[in-house]
Structure formats: structure tokens, C-alpha cells
Amino acid sequence: MIHCPHFVAGRCRSCSEIETPYPEQLLAKQAHAGRLLAGHAGLQWLPAVASVERGFRNKAKMVVSGSSDAPVLGLVDPDLGSIDLRDCQLYPPALQSSFDPLIEYVQRARIAPYDVSQRRGELKFLLITLAEDSGELMVRFVLRSQEPLGRIRKHLPALLARMPQLRVVSINLQPEHKAVLEGEQEIVLGPDATLTMPVGGLPLHLRPRSFFQTNTAVAAALYRQARAWVDALQPSALWDLYCGVGGFALHCAAADRDVLGIELSAEAIDSARQTADGIGATRVRFVASDATTYLLGQPALPPLVIVNPPRRGLGATLATRLQQSETRWLIYSSCNAESLARDLAAMPSLRPRVAQVLDMFPHTRHYELLLLAERG
To answer: 24, 198, 304, 322: which has the fewest Cβ within 10 Å?
Structure first.
């Protein structure tokens, strides 16, 4: 069990279950998933995939507060006080070691942290992503405006010299005064445009606004299990809906299988195509489109469909289209088992056969649930 002084002092309560021994956390998540899917007779449960308890996060989302002379990375409490979380035990050493050089850079470039109460200042967040195999980093500065851009460019060579593992640096503009993590405009400063994230033997490419799971080891297990099911079923074709940077689609590629990934984010699709081209996956294609809109426009669906929707789930329209389709198998990756259960109720002809809990988010009540359903 982790002892967290921030939790004990009430400074940070993000890890709501951190005082529960980890084996009990995992059992509680399995029990919760089991209750939600208890109505599906014959459902087989695979052993849950556990995470390490510390240092599992590949991304730090740090609120920046304080002043340009003394910036603080971490959280802002309800009274708008600064909480320093550089020592958070969820971050691996390679992430923790980046915090002090970035603070020094903010000081050198005179980037004023955004003051919520005064609605002034510039720097709202630092978003730092780690490729664990290589130790390489992507750093995004979320700013209110472009006012500090000249100083950021001026001092960037010194930062790169101090942090040679830094591969991608970008500015994200979020001008609105509201609790939104990032805005629509991204300015990539270099030295590279993408961070290579090796997962399960594949070099996935992340651009600044690309979504990727925060727990690399458990994400690899997620893709590995999906690929095992696909290889056993041997469909001639499959579609991967909400494909992101192509994790499921690329892991399930084969020389005798047509694979199509569908994702609304054009940036994520560019990343997926880059990986596919790099590994020579000639039978894998990617389309930038809304998943529901795309499916409604297709006369027929492939034998197998993989879905990895946001927390709200598939929704009635997409679930109905899958229910009425000729698709034989559905692999559903869910970060919210309650919305998964609702979607399954709307697809009664797709019957759950096998499921597995993967603990992507230790010390919280959240988890990933991977499920294989078959028509019948």
C-alpha cells in the first residue's frame, strides 16, 4: 500500500482508493464489472491484468501556478492555493526528472503562470508525455495567448541542451477562462513533430493532441489480448472504430486481413498512417471521420468490429447499427463498464463470450474492460 502525504493531508484526493491495499482494489474492480454483466449467461472471465502500483503514468498533466519567479507544478486547491506535486509517486523517475528543468525554463523565459482569480498571466498547464522504452519526452505548454512565444523560442535551445531526451515541444493555445485542458490551436516548435511510443513491438507515433492510454504496460496487454482473439477468429477484415493513433488496428494487422481504422481526429489519423507506412502494413487503412456517421453510410460491415469509445459509450444510434448489421464478432474496449452494459443491452444479438478487467488506473475506481461478443 502506498503512503501518500498529499492524500493524508487532504491536498490531493485524485487517488481515492490509495489507502486500500492494491489486491483489494483489483478484486473490487472485478466484482464491479461482474455485477454489471451478471445478466449475460455463460460469460467467461479471464484473470485480471494488474498494474505496478507506482510510477505507471506515462503522462503528467501539471497545473502551473505561483509566479514566473517561483512557478509551482501540480494542482490548485479550492481556495486557489498552489499544491506542488512534483514528488507524486505515480510518475516514474524519467518524468519526475523533467520537472525541475522545466521550472527553470519557465523562470528563464519569464512565462507568467495563469492566475485564475485575476484572470491574467499566460501559462495554464504543462503536459509532459514519456516514451518509457527510450526515455524521450514530449512537452506541451498550454498558454492563454501567444504573448510569450518569442521568449519561448529564444530560450528553447538552452532547454534542449539541458534536456536532450526532449523530442517534441509545442504550444497549445487555450484563451478561454474555464476548466478546459487544451484548445484547438497547436504550434509545434520542434525538434520533432511526433514522439515515438513503442508498444507491444510497434512504434506508435504520437502528435501533441493525440490521445494515448496513460499506462503503457497495461495498454500493451490490452492490445495483446485483442490481437489474440482476432488471430484465433481469423476474420478476413475488421474495422477499428475510435481508433486513435491506431493501437488496435495496427496490432491486429495481418498479411491476409483488411483492416480499417476510423477516428474523428485528423491528427491521430496522420499518426496512425505514419506508423502503418513505417512498418509496411499495406492492408491497413485509416479514415478521419465520425464513427457513427461513417457506419451509417456503409451498406455492409466487416465480420469483426473493434470499438474503443469515450466514457459515454457507443450511444443508441451506433449500437443499433451494429445490432442490425451482419458483423459476427465485436471486441469492445471500455473505460466505463456502465456505458458498456447499456450498449450491450441495445445489442442483444451480440452475446458476450469472454471479458477481462485491465487495471489501467490503480488507486481509483476506474479500469478498462475488454470484451469479446459473438452474434448468436
So the answer is: 24
